[in-house]
């Protein structure tokens, strides 16, 4: 809904790898996210990601400040997204992050 979108917060991502959005060769790209702070146990337990037209991707926590996201199936030709959400401490507000991929 519009209200939900307006109330989203910027995910505290400090950096992402890879930075490029065009993919070739590996059509199940591995995204590594580094956060600007350590996430709490609650935040990590409620962190979710989604892939355009697929089931939820594989999430692997490397530390409280870093995780990897990888689709379980090859991305389709054209545009795809990894969308990640996490509830904030503010009722009804969520952190949101999106990574656009372009498979030619």
Q: What does this protein look like?
A:
InterPro entries: Ig-like_dom (IPR007110). Residues 18-86 form the Ig-like domain. This protein has 104 residues and is mainly beta. The protein has a single domain (2-103), classed as Immunoglobulin-like (Sandwich). Helix content is 10%, strand content 48%. It has two helices and nine strands. The protein has helices at 2-6, 41-45; strands at residues 9-10, 13-17, 22-23, 30-35, 48-51, 58-63, 66-70, 78-87, 94-103. Strands 1, 3, 5, 8 and 9 form a five-stranded mixed β-sheet that branches. Strands 2-4-7-6 form a four-stranded antiparallel β-sheet, with no helix packed on it. The protein is globular and about 40 Å long.
Q: Top keywords for this entry?
A:
104 residues; Immunoglobulin-like; 2 helices; 9 strands; 48% strand
What's the short version?
Helices cover 10% and strands 48% of the residues.
Helices and strands, with pairings:
Elements: H1 2-6, E1 9-10, E2 13-17, E3 22-23, E4 30-35, H2 41-45, E5 48-51, E6 58-63, E7 66-70, E8 78-87, E9 94-103
Parallel strand pairs: 1-9, 3-9
Antiparallel strand pairs: 2-4, 4-7, 5-8, 6-7, 8-9
SSE topology string: HEEEEHEEEEE
> What is the terminal separation in angstroms?
32 Å
Question: Which topology does CATH recognise?
Answer: Immunoglobulin-like
- What overall form do the CA principal axes indicate? globular
- Domain count, please report it: 1
**How many DSSP H or I helices?**
2
- Portion in beta strands: over 45%
Main sheet overview: 5 strands, mixed
Q: Based on the structure given, which CATH architecture is correct?
A: Sandwich
- Secondary structure class reads mainly beta
The unreliable regions are none
Mean pLDDT metric:
93
Secondary structure tally: strands: 9
Kindly provide the radius of gyration, computed on alpha-carbon positions and rounded to a whole number of angstroms: 14 Å
CATH class: Mainly Beta
Percent helix range: under 10%
Domain Ig-like: 18-86
Protein name: Ig-like domain-containing protein
Organism: marine metagenome
